[in-house]
Amino acid sequence: EDTCGGTLRGSSGLISSFDFPSSDSPGTAGGGGAGGLGSSRECKWTILADPGDTISLVFTEFQMDEKSDYLEIEGSKQPTIWLTGKNIPASIISNKNWLRLHFVTEGNHRHKGFRAQYQVKSSGELKSRGVKVLPGKDNTNKLSLMNEGGIKQVSNYCPDPGEPENGKRIGSDFSIGATAQFTCDDDHVLQGSKTITCQRVAEVFAAWSDHRPVCKVKTCGSNLQGPSGTFTSPNFPIQYESNSQCVWIITASDPNKVIQINFEEFDLEIGYDSLTIGDGGEVGDSKTIIQMLSGSFVPDLIVSMSHQMWLHLQSDESVGSIGFKINYKEIDKDSCGDPGTPLYGYKEGSGFLNGDILRFKCQFGFELIGERMITCQNNNQWSANIPICIFPCFSNFSAPMGTVLSPDYPEGYGNNLNCVWLIISEPGSRIHLAFNDFDLEPPYDFLTIKDGDQSETTMLGRFSGAEVPSHLTSNSNILQLEFQADHSMSGRGFNITYSRQQPHHHVSRSHHHPTILIKQGDGSAYRQQVTRVGQYGEDHNLVLHIEKTKELIVDFRKRSDPANPTPLCTLTSYRELR
């Protein structure tokens, strides 16, 4: 099936539904077109602008069947707009820096669909249909441009960009090739391009390379100094304030170093709140932006190109999230920093300079998810995050010892799981399980452990909750571990190690190879047996440590030691009597 839609960026563009302008020609959407409008399909577009900018959407054609076709729009002052029919809708202006369009057609009709143009505009700029009329000048470079309103005079000069509120403009030449620079008052932060250039657009008029920036008042933040430190969003780990404009500038103590940051925690309201990170000390300059982050996914490391880095947190008027905790330190120039090693994995390579390559592998039994190789790029950023090593949901193990983990342990195993692990040891041996950590949602998520192969099994236990189970030992050489999780909530998961126990060989009862039965609750008889074992051990340089009064079979073996004339005995095995 064809696809359509997508994420659109840029100062302007065109969006068209399927097969527009006719049912026999392909679509011409900025985000791509798809098959015929007559089939049952849907399309989604997201228009993204810079923070602080808004988007105007103007419809030039609109024909839909009211019973089967509709266009849903989100991101304007009205939470959701539903459009259908044959009348051209009014223009729509976003109240954020994004618009989402969702087009659905379910019928067999041959209507055209829709065609719309979008334009990104800076905050405060007049939003109107048609071509912007540039101020006339009495010179010899006048051109003519036909518009809906008739003939308008335009020149080879860009319009006066003005000055941002709470800021200043440097430069008064508005001819083609000239530049204008902007600064903000000390208690404000610049948002947008610090420098814009007047340039020729098409063949008929001139325009600035970007919108005039805006200056927003700082509400929090600070200036930080190297060589290292930690800072957080306001109120962390409680949610940050709404309508925040926080700015941090990190400066290395050594001007020949660069700044590296990594995130311990990061969670911003996705799509509405953002953390912009840039190089240098010119806060807000779009030309210096390294990353713009929202949601909960972040790079392992971010490294500046210079001895300074700026960070700008912006939040809207609605609900926020917990924010972030960031560690920073200064490192050598032309370096991407040490990205670390995946949990349950290892890396090959020790260089972190531009051009260096790191390779990653996982421990036995784990699967690598992500890039096996990453490169330190010339912009001091790694080409990708380090991969992760996950434990598969289905696997067989035959190694003498190993580890069994729930998926994504210890971050939480997720929902709707049915995992099976089979541990197979050599015939005649047994398998010992040690539970290192255990946390499952009771009673809906549980781990079942079965002894024996699939044709004949005995259940050793079913476990749930947060209590760590006792150690288990199989009676056969095969163990099955079955893990089930329902559709909601989850715990930390589990961490289990297994080991092979060699077969227990029969030793005849004799003075030199005694097998002594100690029964729990035997009273004086029990103490007599312990005393006898202790005396026997002392006679043969053996110290016996009995930690619990269980029913045990203790097996002592004499071994010769030429270096010591006194025979030595070792405790080679014990087993519980159940």
Automatic annotation (TrEMBL):
Looking up Pfam families in the UniProt record yields:
CUB (PF00431), Sushi (PF00084)
The Sushi domain is annotated at 156-217, 334-391
Entry keyword set: Disulfide bond, Repeat, Sushi
InterPro entries, from UniProt? CUB_dom, Sperma_CUB_dom_sf, Sushi/SCR/CCP_sf, Sushi_SCR_CCP_dom
Which portions of the chain have biased composition (kind: Low complexity)?
16-27
The CUB domain is annotated at 4-121, 220-331, 393-501
Query: Which Gene3D superfamilies does the UniProt record give?
Result: Complement Module, domain 1, Spermadhesin, CUB domain
Q: What is the protein name stated in its UniProt record?
A: CUB and sushi domain-containing protein 3
State the SUPFAM superfamilies in the record.
Complement control module/SCR domain (SSF57535), Spermadhesin, CUB domain (SSF49854)
- Keyword Transferase assigned to the entry: answer is no
Q: Which gene encodes it?
A: CSMD3_4
**Chain intervals for the UniProt region annotation (Disordered):** 15-36
Task: Provide the species name.
Answer: Crenichthys baileyi
Would I find Repeat among this entry's keywords? Answer: yes
Cysteine pairings via disulfide bonds: 362-389
